[in-house]
Amino acid sequence: MTDDYMKTQREALAQHLRLTDGKSGYVKATAEGFQVYVRKKWPGKQITSWDGMPVEWHENVGTHKAANR
What we know:
Radius of gyration: 11 Å
Protein name: DUF4224 domain-containing protein
Oligomer: single chain
Organism: Roseomonas populi
Largest sheet: 4 strands, mixed
């Protein structure tokens, strides 16, 4: 998979989860799948895969981590 493809999928997943405000969390694409970092407990974490790639959830991360700073 290309970096552009993974970037597009990462952005699509972030849009789907509404993590586009730059504060509540973000999605990181890796060779193994997607890492989702969110500030609080996430009711929608039943999403365990996106486009056939696994999704790993990290809840209750700090504000700076959630903003990907």
